[in-house]
Amino acid sequence: MPWNEPGGNQQDPWTGKKRGSNNDPEELIRKLTQKFNNLFGGSGGGNSNSSNSNGNSAKGIILLLIIGTIAWLLSGIYTVDARQQGLVLRFGAFQEVTGAGLHWRLPYPIETVEIIDVEQNRSAQDRSNMLTKDENIIEIGVSVQYKISNIEDYAFNVKDVDLNDPSGTLYQVMRGATREVVGRNSMDFILKEGRENIAIDTQTLMQSVLDAYKSGLQVIKVNLPYAEAPTEVKEAFDDANKARENATQFQNEAETYSNKVLPDARGKAARLLEEAEANRQEAIARAEGDAARFNQLVAEYRKAPDITRERLYLETIEAVMNGSRKVIVDAKSGNNMIYVPMPGTADANAETAAVAAAAKTLQAAPPAKAATDAATPPATEGDIVRGANRNTTTREGR
Fold first, then answer.
1. Nearest Cα to Cα of residue 165 among 175, 178, 155
2. Which of 111, 118, 108, 113 is nearest to 81 (CA)?
3. Residue 219 φ then ψ, to 5°
4. Rounded Cα–Cα distance for residues 106 and 244 (Å)
5. What three-state secondary structure class fits 273?
6. CA angle at residue 117 from 114 to 121, to 5 degrees?
C-alpha cells in the first residue's frame, strides 16, 4: 500500500489522526470554502441544486448588508477630551455642542463633528510704526494671548478669526485697537511709565470689538514687549532722552542741595532769634535789677547820706583801681613815688579798660548822688589814707 493512501482505519500515517476529523485544518478550510460558495451562489458540490443556491445567495447579501449597516452606525462613535468640545454638524448646519466624554452621532455623510481645543491659550503678534498724540512716530510690538470662549460663534460668525496675518480678523482688531490707544497718548508716556496702561486699554478695546463681532474669542492678556523710536531717528531720540535724563539728574541734585541747605539756614535763623530773645530778656532783667538796686540805694541814702556816699565812692574807686598797677604813697612822708605805666604797655591798656569800667559804673550811679556831690565836695586822695598812726597806704591791683 502506498504511503499516501489511507489505511483501513482512515488514519494519517504521520500524525496518527483519523482523516476527515474536525481537527484537520485542510478539512476546515474546505468546509468554509464550500459554505461561502453556497452563500454567493457557487456550486458547493454535485449534490447542490439551483434553488438552494439562490436561497443561500440572498441570505449572504442580507448578512453583508447587516454587517455593513452595523459598521456604518459604529463609525458615528467619537470621543472628546477634557480640554475640548465637539461641534456636531448635520449636512453642514450646526446641530449641537458636546462636552468631554464618549458620544455618538449619525454617521457620515449625515452628520460630522469638529473637535476643537477650547482651553488652549493661543497667541498673536504684531509690530508696526504708529503715530502718537504729539505727532511722533513710534515702533510698537504687541503680543496678544487669547482662547475660544464660544465654539459656535467661533466656527460660524467670523471667517479666519484667529489667522495670524493681515487677513485675520483678530490680527486686524489687534492692530486697530493698538493704533487707537497709541494715538491717544504721547510718546514719552508710552516709552516710560505708560506701557502697562497702554496694554490694559488695548485689551479692553480689543475685547469690546471682538464681542461686537460675536467672534467667540476671549482676550486673556496683552503685552507690549517692544516700544522704541524708529531706526531712522533712534540716534536723535536717544540724544533727546539723554538730555532729558541729565535735566532730571540736575534737578534732583538741586533739590538735594536745597533740602540740605534750607534746614541749616532755618536752624541758624531760629538760633539767632533765640539768642536775640535771650539777650532781650537779659537786658530787661539787668535793667530791672539795676532799677531795684537804685531804689534800695536811695532808701539807704536817705537814712544815712554820708555813709552811703562814702561807700559808693569807695566801691567806685575799687572798681577803677582793680585792674591798675598803681602805687599811691602818702604825700606827707618823704621819698614820694608815684608809679604810672607807660602808654602802649600792657599795664596802660589794663588801666584804660579799668577807667572805662569805672566811667560806666559812674554813669549807672543814681542821679541823687550827683546832687549830693554838688553840695558836698568830693573826697581827695588823702581820704583814702586814714588814721594818724599809718604813714603810707598801698593799693596794688590784683
1. 175
2. 118
3. -80, 120
4. 71
5. helix
6. 150
pLDDT in tens, 220-260: 999 998 888 877 777 777 787 788 888 988 999 999 998 88
| Claim: this prediction has a pTM higher than 0.85 | no
Three-state SS at 383 = helix
Element (H, E) at 206: helix 195-213
CA distance 43 to 51: 11
Q: Classify residue 15 by burial, with Cβ atoms within 10 Å: 0-12, 13-18, 19+.
A: exposed
CA distance 217 to 121: 11
Three-state DSSP class for 17?
Answer: coil
Q: Within 78-194, where are the H helices?
A: 151-156, 169-183, 187-191
Residues 308-362 pLDDT 10s? 888 888 888 888 777 766 555 555 655 555 555 555 555 556 656 665 665 566 5
| Sheet order of strands, 122-131 included | 122-131, 137-148, 217-228
169 CB neighbour count, 10 Å cutoff:
19
Winning range, highest mean pLDDT, from 15-29, 110-124, 315-329? 110-124
- The HSE-up count of residue 129 (CA atoms within 13 Å, CB side) is 8
Instruction: Report the Cα–Cα distance between both ends of the chain, in Å, rounded.
Output: 175
Q: In angstroms, rounded to a whole number, what is the distance separating the alpha carbons of residues 379 and 142? A: 110
Q: From CA 187, how far away is CA 131, in angstroms rounded?
A: 9
| Torsion angle of the four alpha carbons 103, 104, 107, 112, in this order, in degrees rounded to the nearest 10 | -40
The 10 Å Cβ neighbour count of residue 44 is 17
pLDDT digits (tens, 9 = 90+) for 186-223: 888 888 888 889 999 999 999 999 999 998 899 999 99
**Rounded Cα–Cα distance for residues 395 and 321 (Å):** 8
Cell of 91: 449636512
Q: What is the pLDDT of residues 49-100, one digit of tens each?
A: 555 555 666 777 788 888 888 888 888 888 888 888 888 888 888 888 888 8
